[in-house]
Fold these 3 entries.
Entry 1:
Amino acid sequence: MLHLWLSGIGGLLQARELMFLTLGMAMGLFFGAIPGLGGATALALLTPLTYGLDPFTALALAGGVMGAVPMGGSITAILLNAPGSAPSAATCLDGHPLAQQGKAGLALGAAASANAIGGIIGTISVLAILPIAKELVLLFGPPELFLLAVLGLIVVATASRGKMLRGLIAGTFGLMISFIGYNDVTGALRFTAGIAYLWDGVHLVPALIGLFAVAEMINLSVKGGAITKDAKAVAITSMTSGLLETFRHWRTVVRGSLVGTIVGAIPGVGGTVASFLSYSLTVQASKNPESFGKGNIEGVIAPEAAINAKDCSCLIPTLAFGIPGGVEMAVFMGLLVLHGLQPGPLMLIDHQVEIYGLIWALTGSCVLASFLGLFLARPLSKLTLIDSEILVPTVMSVALVGSYAVDRNIGNVIVTAIFGILGYLMIRFDYPRLTMVVALVLGAAAERNFHQTSMMSDGNLSIYLHRNVCLVLLIGIVALLVAPLFRGLKRAPAAGLAL
Amino acid sequence: MIDRLTRRGFILTAGAAASLLAADSDYPNKNIDFIIPKAPGGGFDNLVRVIAPSLEKYLPHKVNVVPDNIPAGGGGKGIGQLYRARPDGYTIGAIDIPGSFILQERQGGAGFDLNKITWLCSMGKPEYFCLGVGANSPLKTLADLQALSKTRPVKFTSSGPEGTAYGATVIGTKLLDIRTQLITGYKGSSDFVVGAIRGDGDAVIAPVTSLRPMLQSKTVRVLATFEPKGTFPGIPDAAALGKPELGQILLERLIGAPPALPPAIKAILSAALNKAMADPQTVGLAKKFEVEMAPSSPEQAVARIRENAAFFAKWKSSLMV
């Protein structure tokens, strides 16, 4: 095994491979930072250009892109509340409030270091589980995926403490939106009002750009001034302060990395679930849950660690069975096949050196991009001092063009605008956007897997009790639901004594 | 007055004809949109992305051919967009048959009529299907499967009801006299094949190219192939099963343009596409997807569609349940 790991590293440490890895990293940072572009667009553009490259070099280039996209996404998420890609939206929740407090450098530094550490932990985890990858992928069928979606929804709902009712309202609204469009199971079109754009449902990335970037810019233009008024705080931000925060919260990093690794390895779940689940679990575990959403550095570290760990582990279902976790992985699969690497069980046996090379390329790119992020933290944080008169029209234009660029559809721009207004109203009336986003992401998957489970079991719900992974997930769900009651009971006698 | 009108009519007609001729000789002078009514990353998408750069080489003028994924509504939106595009040669699309026929029947309001599409050529040889189970399944032979169906419906994992694999499963199991219940909604052939391996269902019917790698890695056991002459040693084929109709269940990938495409533009596109598909680079890359390129004329493509449509029309009532 060790010689295969070393062969992978050895293959990568050639001048040509390193050059393409760095090129991929630069592209990944750029495409990740522009809302609406992301890794899938970068890979789709690069794929035809790799025809002339040997497979290993092409993988170094692709690994470079995929490893750096999350860092690019974090930069705009923190500075402008504009997530470069859907998973980065979780970083907006606390990253941007930090930027508003003049601590953009701190948030960027923490994001960069959490990115790198998450990537490394993800790599170690994947190297450990790769030999049992096939078995792991086969553990998760429709019943497990349904319960996982329910678990995700409950984690997020219980994370919105103090605003439970508002959280549930926002989550229910998100679920309703997620059911719009084509039903994969029955083949029926639902709730589309005859609008062809809605056949594919409400696209996630344009909705997130609206909910975060546009909503924030509306808010900023109403308030006036710059994102932060604390120029002094921006000036004193040092490169290492974010790095130190990440090490101080090492439990959050490890938890986020493990969540990312596990979620990434489950076929068809995707990075957005990983980042939001990691964020919500961190809120659950915190002694100060009310500080989240207002600029808690753990709210940046948790999703960032998960996103990069997920990037490595989502290679498992892609390579082992050809099931991509998202659009980026789907495009990457096309690149693999063009270079004679057919994803499937045989790939794990026949192309181990290439797989390890790819894993190292992803990790290398992630660490390089994070270093770059650390160095750029201070100059980039000065963007938050730009006056809204310049910033708002610029960001609005980039957000709307980025939304259009997702699949060159004007309908995306309308969705972004509608969700922008909705997001602003949610900020204004203090409704949590987190529950709505997670419901949007998980709703359709929960419905599909529930239908499939019912077809598997002829509608017999006891199927959930006869599968080991389901039992573990059910215990987790019950624990999450019961925990607040216990906390309440514990507090009640204490309150009684005080009286 | 009549003379004046006639003269004006003549001038207008001549002008229009001249501009059409000029347009043909000028064609193409802007980018061509290549609609893919499937999500990025699948076999269908990959094949178009292999052909597009070669097509650019063989068009009379240098323009870009831009792949455009429009997967919504099980592909109905993409095909509808192709159907309604201007017939000027700047929008073409890839369409899978018979899945798109099923889609047309199911989504009556989808706004396209495959009989009116201008067919340009086919994209590779048609693919046959085969029937498999997970390697750990207790079902060892087709007879086991048929025996099971006498006690309860056999569960098959499959795509949504609009998919070609769905059609193949419904027709194939009826021909093989297997009572079935379909577990639908899987996203792509890899997904529903893995569903069967995992035990979500008892068996799966999938294109030969999807099951062959799984068989080689010993994760799947193939019980029957629908090929007229089988390529799996020791596995019964359509002839051995005494069901030659199984060989008519085919996955066809064709390229079409909007209805009423001018013949001159149709000829240019068809010729360029055929040259692109015979290009050694395209042939080599397509082979990696296990697709054998087989250039065809528009007439051959239409003939294949008619044959395919006639076969599936016989099963319409079963497919529309």
Entry 2:
Amino acid sequence: MSQPSTARGAAKQRSTASARFQHWLAHHRREAAASFLRLIRAPFSTFMTVLVMTIALSLPLALGLLLDDARSAAAGWDGDARLSIYLRQDTSPEAQQAALAKAQRLANVDKARLITPEIALEEFKSQSGYGPALDQLGSNPLPALLEVFPHDTTDSSAMTRLRDQFAQWPEVELAEVDIAWVQRLRSILELSERLLHAIGGALLLGALLVVGNTIRLSIESRREEIRVISLLGGTHGFVRRPFIYMGVWCGLGAGVFTLATVSGLVAWLNTPVMEMARLYGSQFTLSYPSFGTGLGVIAVASLLGWLGAWVAVGRHLRELEP
Amino acid sequence: MIRFESVSKRYAPQFDALRELNFELPTGEMAFLTGHSGAGKSTLLKLIMLIERATSGRVIVNGRDHGQLKGRQIALARRDIGMVYQDHNLLDDRSVFDNVALPLVIAGLPPRDIPNRVYAALDLVGLKHRAKAIPHELSGGEQQRVGIARAVVGKPSVILADEPTGNLDPQLAVEVMNIFEDLSRVGVSILVATHDLSLIARFRHRLLTLKAGQLVADTGVPA
């Protein structure tokens, strides 16, 4: 054995901030690579973790995409929402034109159209196939109709208020707003959205717990190492680093697998969905995740991995506190 | 420098491991800590290493009041203390080199500076040639010396040793104690907890004797 070579005993070797930063970066690179290798060396448990996370992320993503598509389709149908204002039978043609002009001047009306009793009868004849029978009628039983298109068809209460406003006009027999189906659709979409948030939240929490549990098992197998590093002056950040990278790698993998799974699902379902939509005269198709959505999914998955690892290691570190 | 000011440590429910301890170990001084099992030696070392906190009183090491340290400060304080454990505490999945390098990696030393420091520490304990071995390939004595190399590699101000010669043959025990003496001469405070009275008799240093958690004797360096 040789003698201590240091003449300064406990003196510390100084290093520049830049050198320390370089070392810190190098350590991050090493830990990232080492964590990745550690996951690869345990393929089964890594695969199970990534698989469960993928399932947990795929469901909300697929439902979210479907909901977006349904919302877009519903927005297209909103344009058909209108009010039907039936004028009294005895309303003169001049009064009908005056009512049309009055309706068009209303602030919340986009446009209005007058369907006179004559036009209505002609349309009814041509569409119903009862032309000869209707010709036998002595007089035209159909009232004049104002078709009113509001500016905002998304606000059902505004449309109802507008209907009530028309109903008070003396020349109006009946004012109707046919938005019940739009309201029902919106209610379904809103309910679906809330359900999606609830299910998505529960599934994301599940993914978080899965990562946390995987990291916890890894911590158990490296408990002694963590204790020794801690006693040698390793900060919480230093101890956490390899586990954080493990969590992030798992999350990253799950994010990529989630995108692949959902894209595959869309490709698989799109042909029958398009065929069914075509039968209803619609161009409806399922959307693939966009580039931005893809990045978001990977970011969220990685964040979940990071958070799960942080929580799991944090619990253990607290046990090591004096 | 280590200073204990009226330090007591009580474990639940009512076991007093240390009672009103007062002593100071100045910079560069070496001392033995002795006492029967359960006298409080390990608890005292744990308080210095920040594994435990004192129930009352103040533990001051290198000017830091250990009762006031939190989080990162604890980690930084530990880096300035080298600890030699009776059970070595080596990591079995890493080489001797990597075990000894660990305090330097943790402290953020540039990688290019690490090999020289590690080989110097291994040379100090006569194990430079076993740098690539993994701990379970070494004898108990060799593992103890790796533990010593790891404790000194970071050039700490304080070294604590818990039965550091327990697994060593007499010749190696003497060599290890010589290393500690050399380190104390260059300003390192060293506290060696041991039962080995022959070692205490051979190396004439201050002796702190604990009994039932109390410091019953603080004997200066014999003339």
Entry 3:
Amino acid sequence: MSERYKNRVELLQGTLDLLILQTLMWGPQHGYGVSQAIRANSGDLLQVDAGSLYPALHRLEKQKWIGADWKISENNQEVKVYRLTAAGRKQLMKERSRWEQISDAIGGVLNPAKKESAS
Amino acid sequence: MRLSWLWRKREKELEKEIQHHLRMAEEEREERGASSHEARAGARREFGNVGLVKEVTRDTWGWRWLENLYEDLRYGFRALGKNKGFAAIAILTLALGIGANTAIFSLIDAVLLRAIPVRDASQLVVAQWRAHKEPNNHNTMGYGDCEDVHENSLRGYCSFSEPFYKEIRAQEGVFSSLAAFAGGDRLDLSENGAASTVEGAEYVSGNYFETLGVQPALGRLITSGDDSPTATAVAVLSYNYWRSRFGGAPSVVGKNILLNKIPFTIIGVAEPRFDSLSPGNALQMWIPLSALPQLNQLNQPWDNREVDPLSWWLVLVGRLQPGTPRAQAQAAVSTIFHNAMTSGAKPIFKTEDDPAITLTPVEQGLTGNRTESSTPLYVLMLAVGIVLLIACANVAGLMLARATSRQKEMAVRFALGASRGRILRQLLTESLMLSLAGGALGILFASWCDVSIVTFLNSGDNGSPLFSPSIDSRVLFFTAVVSILTGVLFGLAPALRGLRVDLTPALKEGAGSSSQTVRARKVRMNPGNSLVVAQVALSIVVLAGAGLLVRTLQNLKNLDPGFDTRNILTFSLNPTLIGYKSADTDNMYGELRSRLSAIPGVVSVSYSWTALLGGGRWSTSFHLHGNRKEEESNSDVLPVGPDFFQTMRIPLLAGREFSALDFATAQTIAAAEAAERAAAAAKLKPGVKPAASQAQTADLPARPAIVNQAFARKYFPKGNVIGQRFGKEAANPETGEDKNPGWEIVGVVADARYDKLRREVKPTTYVPNCGGSVAFALRTQTDPEKFVPRIRAMVSQLDSNLPVYNIRTESQQIDRQILKERLIARLSGFFGMLALLLACIGLYGLISYEVARRTREIGIRTALGAGKREVLRLVLSQGMRLTLVGTVVGLGLALGLTQYTKNLLFGVKAADPVTYVAVTLLLVGVTLAASYVPARRATRVDPVVALRHE
């Protein structure tokens, strides 16, 4: 049962990290917020399930690329809010340029004339 | 627990985070118009399995193993707590097994493994010589620092002459320093008028401590400046001696003491960990070699040994020069040795004797007490190792039985998705908890054992203990490793079995139901049976070994030493230590003898050079008339006082005991010989002119001697022994001729043991004692220990400065001699009983379990008319089958393994049938009893209850 999640996490890993870091670039956000932002910004195409999201958030936190603070929400609930750290920002730049390279490379191979716009 | 607090906090945070996620998703759905119920369900569905999300998230924390461990531990505690009886028996069993191993290992650690406490021991070497013949020297003396090679065609030891030491030391470029030592001797110590003895005083060269790299704990140690004839006499104390004799007072430095009546100054105390270079040879004091001649210590042939190349008594320890390989140093020393041995007017060795010298690292070369103790220790280690195996088998059997009752639990865990690895880990955690708890308790048991062993070793003896076992870090490490291995060993099989669960039947039906039982009987009982067989077999091995050692002890105890050991008290005196001359000594002994004889209850009094069975021995080679010149005969020699044979009750077979005239003759000869030796010594010493006139010993009458039967049989097989003469100690080294007229036999006595019970009686010559130190022997009518205060009072009346030491009855003397055998017999007997007990518990457990499991079957049998006898036989036969198989296997194993005890046995063979039969009977009897109890229970099974049971 846990096999299923593991495979998916692995498939998405690099990309999901990139997406999370990019999402937090726009400001601190809690876990649900991150998932909703990715969903909205991908035009409902990318749905990150909780079984991938939370392990990724906790892993990034452990790697010190994102930090976490506890805040109290309007309905008096404790909320864990993630924010990008300086190291995370650097990591984001690295990942972005890597992604762009790969994306360009794949695009070039597939069809030099046509351009895909998924983001 | 901090860790669990941190853990719980993170757990709670994750929970909050997820709850928040769900709430937000819910709210959003509600905003979009869903009912609250739909919203909640939708949010949940979208989120997925909360538990699983939590788990995969937790995985990223990298604490997974810790979490599992924590869970396993908690679970284990709960599982064991549920079954306290099982846990208690398992832990106790393991504690006994592991504790016994820890105790014996701590002995091995103390005797065999503890490193020699010096700086950079790998650079230290000890010199040892080998040759095909005894050296043609005056004497070779040793204190047991290294192995005494005495094989058919090989002789060897590690003592050398002082001139040879100086010769090598002068050699450049071999050693960075070369030290010499000899000891420990007994010295008489007096301080502020109080007399006592130093049990182990070692004579060391000035560079000894510097060469070894030993530091002082207080004051300073002996240096080269102290080792000179003109220096003030100084002494260094061992740390333990300083604590026990001087109360650890720092003011001891600079204190003046008298050693053998000669003033010495204490200059310091050695560091605590250094009490001897040779293991198990604890010393109390070190004094410079240069102080030795003043000490008057060894008056007899050794008095000029510092210049005599024919007196070998020093152990040489060198520190190799950095960069000089041992082989190179050895080659350099060999050349010197070979030249020194084979050259000169009268060479010590001939070239064909192939004299050789080797330099051995001190840790291998200086064996001290190691060699002697290693065999019994390894045998004991083997025994306790087997006991631990039995304990493992025992606990494994318990775990197996328990695994059956836990099948349902395991099945539930499997069904809930636990992986095999996870369950295996859980089960192993449980067994490790048991074994570590057992190990912890075992350490307590081991320290109790150590205390008992030390108490036993020190009982009735005031000498310093040979070794002091203690639970140090190495022992603790050993225990930890053994505990973990034990846990894995006994836990693995049941755990693997626990994994082989067929889910459906296990869940569906309760334990003990019929369909399961049938299957179980085929599969499950096999490991249980083989565990009991293994326990029985291993117990036989331990019991057989213990039986042989106990028989050895009995043989030694029942051995007739050739004299009456009952009601004999011995004590030692050494008046030469306080300056008595030979003639005064003899007078004093005579006076003391007559005073002691006057005590009511004292039957007779005599003395000898050393007490019989006291461990000391003097043997000599002599020339037998009619033999070729080179051919030497050997005899043990014991100088004795008047009425010795009568006092010891050694039967006189022919001739007479020594008369007063015999003693007078012996004294005259001794005086003449002393004069001769003094002259010879003067010749060797540079700058002293030899005395003009020498006493002519050849003109003296023959010295009277009494020989034992062994002597008469071997050297005078034709009989007619009385009046025969034979040569003296050795052929004259100068001329190669006999020292005439030698000894004349005046009597023959029955054979009696001399130094040791275990050493067979050799040809022995008894001669009249002249001067020197002696051991008095009193034969009393009643308990000889009552006479001790009277004796002390009488000796101090004669001379208040004269210490009395080694006061022992002859039976204590024997006990002391067989101390090692007694200890080994006692320990192995104890371990044998432990093994038997564990095997019985194992068998009892198995049979009880079987009876419980077969209640229904027994009920049916009873209902169908089986009588109590049949039921009893049914149950007992199973126990007996296992016992018999185990016994056969065990006897086979024992025959092989007891070969290792061969060197320890006395008067009994390793394959002693009596022992094996006795052990088998004992085991069969006890196991029969162990299975009888549950069998009785089986006969009381009520068929109605048993059948309704389901």
